[in-house]
Amino acid sequence: MDLKLFLIVTSFAIIARAAVLKNGIHIPTYAQICRRSQNDFDNCLKGSLQTLIQKISKDGIPQINLPPLDPWKVEEFHVKNSGDPFKIGLTFTNSQTRGFSNIQILGLRSNFDNDKKIELDIDFHNKQVLVNGNYLAEGYISDLPILGKGKYSGTITNVTGTLKIRGHVIQRDGEEYLQIDRTIMRPSVGDMKIQMSNENNKYPELSNLLVSLLNQFWRPIYEEALPYFQNISDELMTTRFNQATLKIPYNQLLPK
């Protein structure tokens, strides 16, 4: 469901070495040090990413307020479908997503041709992601009204895609820091199964029909909602990345 968020934390593998912030907080070494000038930098960072995922999946990095990978919590997001056979709006709240710690990094490509800019493309695959929380559904199936609320759970399998990170180097207080400008991701999904309880018993048969239709037509709904997810995830991921990259000098994040 909140697929567009599921690599937000992963690329913090650029913090793959010990670092000391200006306020004296020490960040421990989590993975191999990768230098931009080394010939095998892409393979090195790919391995560091994979190592970092395993090491911070439960605890995150408290020193820079980096949350754990599992579970990943999202307070609220919305999905709308305006095509046949139904028109409906879904609001999901208090969602928890599990399975991010199982992400496999398939490949990584970097571009440092300009010393003041950074480009990273990270290919990934996740065999299974589990999500649960609360939902509210309002809309119509043909001309029949739908009004449902309760608990939901979903199983999302074979998620693949490429996370693109773009940023530039800034000067602050005599130090260079990396500022992330954009994060772009459009994941593809192999399959999705959804279950919903219904606390509104006014239309129980229609609520059951809604779940059946969501499982049958999840793919066009996902495709229609994807631009919305891309917009919110770009903003969220960029903000989260900058919480870390603007705290640690660039020569410690990615030494030359």
UniProtKB/TrEMBL annotation:
Keywords: Biological rhythms, Signal. PANTHER family: BCDNA.GH05536-RELATED (PTHR11008:SF18), PROTEIN TAKEOUT-LIKE PROTEIN (PTHR11008). Belongs to the TO family. Coiled coil: none annotated. GO terms for biological process: circadian rhythm. GO terms for cellular component: extracellular space. This is Uncharacterized protein. It holds the Pfam family JHBP. The lineage of its organism: Eukaryota, Metazoa, Ecdysozoa, Arthropoda, Hexapoda. It comes from the Eukaryota. Residues 1-18 form the signal peptide. It comes from Rhynocoris fuscipes. InterPro entries: Haemolymph_juvenile_hormone-bd, To_sf.
